[in-house]
Amino acid sequence: MKIVRFTYKDLAPRYGWVDQDLVGPIEGDPFCDYRRYDPEYPLAAVRLLPPCEPSKVICVGRNYIAHAKEHAVDVPEIPLLFLKPPSAVIAAGEAILIPPQSNNVEHEAELAIVIGKPGRWIEPEHALDHVFGYTIGNDVTARDLQRRDNQWTRGKGFDTFCPLGPWIETDLYPTDLLITCHVDDELRQMGSTHDMVFTVEQLVAFASSFMTLLPGDVILTGTPAGVGPLFPGNTVSIHIDGIGSLTNPVRASRQGGAPERG
User: Is the full-model pTM beyond 0.85?
Assistant: First the structure.
């Protein structure tokens, strides 16, 4: 089942579910007790919001061997985790803003885990019991700032640097999903979740070993090789089998940013 957050005309933001080309409202908490109503809103007419409201976005670095190699760094022996602030999250269709502080902003296409059941010290064999579903994430990165700062908070944490969506797919097994990323018409990334160094189960268990995971929290599972630059005027689209596509335009921030590519 596809779970969305949406607005329609004068409706307040709410959760819903997608049935072909229609959206039905959900009453209650989709992570707990809820009731589905018949689909009534055209999917093409609603405004999709980020599919969840995470208290934290946990990201995984260098979880694909080929991506580590393209940056000439070692694959970590344990998951390399960092955080993005919730303020970085935007929905499908919203603009990624290039900040004036950076001259090298890049896309990173990723499978995103959405937590559905709270947990701490979760055993790997029970990890999937805590997973609500999966969506698509783009770990947008100011690569020059990431390298300059020697830690990743600023380079990964700008507003708009975490597109999520378009919905959460609850009926999906994540072991061998094809991930592709196009910028305009150019194929930039193509890989499979089969090539992840650490599995979904291992990532959930490891993250929960030092922080409590809450419903709606997101874990970005790492990116395949092929990351590359984004410029104002680009459109970046990430597709994951079984979920769909997350598409976002790229714009310069109002405070400036990299010039459009000629």
Answer: yes
